[in-house]
Amino acid sequence: MPELPEVEALAGFLRERAVGRTVLDVEVPAFQALKTVDPPVAALRGLALRDVARHGKFLDLAFGEPGLHLVVHLARGGWLRWRDDLAGARPARPGKGPLAARVRFTPGETGRTPGFELTEAGTQKRLAIHVVRDPAEVPGIATLGPDPLADDFTPEVLGRIVGGSRTRIKGLLRDQKVIAGIGNAYSDEVLHAARMSPFKIAGTLTDAQVAGLHEAIVTTLREAVERARGLAAADLKAEKRGGLRVHGRTGEPCPVCGDVIREVSFADSSLQYCPTCQTGGRPLADRRMSRLLK
């Protein structure tokens, strides 16, 4: 699933490649992905892309002035693919293949028709597309928590978030209404950097642990953003996998201490952690309501 660093990189990529271009056509063959009807998708035709922003994991393309916003949430299996020339692309067929949407811009000086496609792999179709006048009209954006890379996301803010919470810290970090942009992969990375068990109760953190967790959140995400900066959209997935130290690396040695990275599996996801770095050397029981083995 694309998380804050990848969506930030996609926004930067589109700012470089697409800002100033005018929409020639928009196709949305995945009808279930389109979550709005007014304004219609066709209203984007003829509008120039003026900016691209990120809200948590949402990608926000602003067209015209004041104009409209094409807001995309890529969910678990979604991705954005830039194409230098879509002039010869076959018409999109509803229900056929991974293509969810296609945006073509007017031909440039080279005569080619650039644009991008939104695709979604897998059977669970959760990619969401909104055409709105204001991004705040998108329910998921309206309820987002603070952005962890914003200047006003301080240790004091994090302290208020975790204070009194009975939620396990792994779940709290992934809750978009609490902190925006962190998902399964980067929550594993943050907790490893903070040397903290994923099942630690958030409200039990000391001031020193809150400060350490804040540092881990900011540093982990900023480093990931820097690694992704300037990469083509097609290269971002591989960069993410290569930059992760514990997530997705079950059975490999921890890059910090050399212990074997372990996994806890759930119904539709899993987490990875280092016992030596995070749980005092004790493995976590691999079941949904896991607790430290005695």
UniProtKB/TrEMBL annotation:
Signal peptide: none annotated. Its cofactor is Zn(2+). Residues 2-95 form the Formamidopyrimidine-DNA glycosylase catalytic domain. GO terms for molecular function: 8-oxo-7,8-dihydroguanine DNA N-glycosylase activity; damaged DNA binding; DNA-(apurinic or apyrimidinic site) endonuclease activity; lyase activity; zinc ion binding. Pfam families: Fapy_DNA_glyco (PF01149), H2TH (PF06831), zf-FPG_IleRS (PF06827). Residues 91-114 are annotated as: Disordered. GO terms for biological process: base-excision repair. Residues 245-279 form the FPG-type domain. This is DNA-(Apurinic or apyrimidinic site) lyase /formamidopyrimidine-DNA glycosylase. It comes from Thermopolyspora flexuosa. The lineage of its organism: Bacteria, Bacillati, Actinomycetota, Actinomycetes, Streptosporangiales.
